[in-house]
């Protein structure tokens, strides 16, 4: 780790690992270490605050700063309460979709159609594991109408341009019997969300 910059630990959801690693590579973050928690926790958001707290306690005293790369992610403010105890900040926003699209663009998408189910590159790659099997739709496909009755479309927020991932995202929308829309975000909005919260991350 470079001695000229403060050492930073990013504690984040594994769903953001690829993108944070790439942003770090592009910015030369030799002073940044990472710890990832399983993306499956999003199906049990009540467990996120405790899991994050455990990693914070493990990292305290070993790093100059700790940043938590989560939104509220369905914790109902409980994650923020944990972070407030330690004086640690997280990324601004409720979830990774706002990180990737950017807050203004995401707000526009939500206003355009509140009944939107969002996919990222990570969720496209892991759709069967996290959505189909994670929600039990492989065993009880009849639950699809219960889970998704209020949704009208799938919006794929793509971090990379990939025909394979776009095809898989379209297939995912078909499995849910929803309309499909593709929106390319790249990494710029996400890189900004990291820099805005922790300007010294990229200093």
Q: What is the structure about, briefly put?
A:
The chain is of the alpha/beta class and 203 residues long.
Main attributes of the structure:
Rossmann fold; 3-stranded parallel sheet; 17% strand; 203 residues; 2 domains; alpha/beta; single chain; globular; 4-stranded parallel sheet
SSE layout:
Elements: E1 8-13, H1 17-27, E2 32-37, H2 48-59, E3 65-69, H3 78-86, E4 89-90, H4 96-101, H5 103-112, E5 116-119, H6 121-125, H7 127-132, H8 144-147, E6 153-158, H9 163-176, E7 179-184, H10 188-197
Parallel strand pairs: 1-2, 1-3, 3-4, 5-6, 6-7
Helix pairs in contact: 2-3
What does this structure look like?
The chain has 203 residues and is an alpha/beta fold. The protein folds into two domains: 8-95 and 187-201, Rossmann fold; 103-184, no CATH class. Helices cover 43% and strands 17% of the residues. The chain contains ten helices and seven strands. The chain has helices spanning 17-27, 48-59, 78-86, 96-101, 103-112, 121-125, 127-132, 144-147, 163-176, 188-197; strands at 8-13, 32-37, 65-69, 89-90, 116-119, 153-158, 179-184. A four-stranded parallel beta sheet has the order 2-1-3-4, covered by helices on one side. Helix 9 (163-176) links the parallel strand 6 and strand 7 (179-184). It is globular. The chain starts with 7 loop residues before the first strand and ends in a 6-residue tail after the last helix. Mean pLDDT is 91; it is low at 199-203.
């Amino acid at each position: 780790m470079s001695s000229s910059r403060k050492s930073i630990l990013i504690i984040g959801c594994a769903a953001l690992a690829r993108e944070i690693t790439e942003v770090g590579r592009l910015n030369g973050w030799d002073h940044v270490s990472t710890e990832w928690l399983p993306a499956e926790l999003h199906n049990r958001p009540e467990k996120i605050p405790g899991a994050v707290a455990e990693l914070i306690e493990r990292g305290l005293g070993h790093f100059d700063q700790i940043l938590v790369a989560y939104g509220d992610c369905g914790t109902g403010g409980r994650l923020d309460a944990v972070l407030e105890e330690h004086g640690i900040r997280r990324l601004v926003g409720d979830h990774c979709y706002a990180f990737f699209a950017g807050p203004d663009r995401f707000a526009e998408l939500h206003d355009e159609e509140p009944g939107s189910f969002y996919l990222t590159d990570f969720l496209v790659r892991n759709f069967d594991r996290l959505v189909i099997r994670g929600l039990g739709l492989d065993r009880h496909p009849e639950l699809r109408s219960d889970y998704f009755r209020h949704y009208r479309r799938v919006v794929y927020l793509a971090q990379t341009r990939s025909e394979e991932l776009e095809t898989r995202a379209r297939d995912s929308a078909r499995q849910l019997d929803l309309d499909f829309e593709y929106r390319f975000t790249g990494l710029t909005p996400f890189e900004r969300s990291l820099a805005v919260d922790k300007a010294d991350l990229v200093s």
